[in-house]
Amino acid sequence: MFELLTEKLSRVFRELRGRGRLSEKDIEAALKGIRLALLEADVNYKVVKNLLEEIKQRALGQDVMESLTPGQQVIKIVNEELIKLMGAGRRYLELDGKKPLSIMLVGLQGSGKTTTAGKVAIQLRKQGYHPYLVPVDINRPAAVDQLSKIGDEIGIPVHPSDTEQGAEAICLSALKRASEVGADLLVIDTAGRLHIDEELMEELSRMKDVIQPSEILLVADSMTGQDAVSLAKRFDEVLDITGVILSKMEGDARGERPSP
């Protein structure tokens, strides 16, 4: 996805670099090319609209129109606005408070939460924490087995969740047992659904109230495309998520994986 987007934006930029002066018409043509590239990459149209408005406002400024290298100036503006859109600064996980701490991973079924839980645990271990994996998908016992297998492979303890218990009860049990296994940070793999429903959101909200997590991270399939915007908005409204993890980055936005 990113390779295709880079290629299409590069074509637009080559046109700009070849011009000694830029007219408003030239900039409009470039913006049209950028718009088309982003929409074909399945970027949400509202995001595209807001981004192009910011670029246009700056690109039509006096500094660009009178520059000796106007094409380079416009490219610089596009780069800066894309960085600002994606997040210009780096923010680390805020893991302060009474231990054991906890991180909730939330998202739809099939988004990659369970695999991501293992990857997050590995990174946290590298930072000096002693993570404890907690499977809480009581409607899908296979998810418990999957996380247990991942835990065995990476050498990180996994809570023996009882699927007969409710999600909140499992979390409370894990909090109590964490010290017994020498853990100071719970990585909680929550339940998912094929689509957002109120039952799921109510369960996640109750879990949040019970464990008071330091971070709530939404795991979103990169191939979701522009629907990811509404997905993130809904989870944020209910849970006040603190970050997003994009999974399955080897595919493209249209649900196709590259050939071997």
Topology:
Elements: H1 2-17, H2 24-40, H3 45-59, H4 62-65, H5 70-86, E1 101-106, H6 113-126, E2 131-135, H7 141-154, H8 167-178, E3 185-189, H9 198-211, E4 215-221, H10 227-239, E5 243-247
Parallel strand pairs: 1-3, 1-4, 2-3, 4-5
Give a short account of the largest sheet.
Answer: 5 strands, parallel
- Count of alpha/pi helices: 10
Helix/strand class:
alpha/beta
Strand order of the largest sheet: 2-3-1-4-5
Q: Kindly report the average pLDDT value.
A: 86
Identify the notable features of this structure and list them briefly.
single chain; 260 residues; alpha/beta; Four Helix Bundle (Hemerythrin (Met), subunit A); Rossmann fold; 2 domains; 5-stranded parallel β-sheet
Commentary on this structure:
By secondary structure, this protein is α/β, with parallel strands linked by helices. It folds into two domains: about 80 residues, Four Helix Bundle (Hemerythrin (Met), subunit A) (Up-down Bundle), CATH 1.20.120.140; about 150 residues, Rossmann fold, CATH 3.40.50.300. About 50% of the residues lie in helices and about 10% in strands. The protein is built from ten helices and five strands; from the N terminus they run αααααβαβααβαβαβ. A five-stranded parallel sheet has the order 2-3-1-4-5, with helices on both faces. The protein starts with a helix and ends in a 13-residue tail after the last strand. The C terminus is likely disordered.
Summarize the structure.
This protein has 260 residues and is α/β, with parallel strands linked by helices.
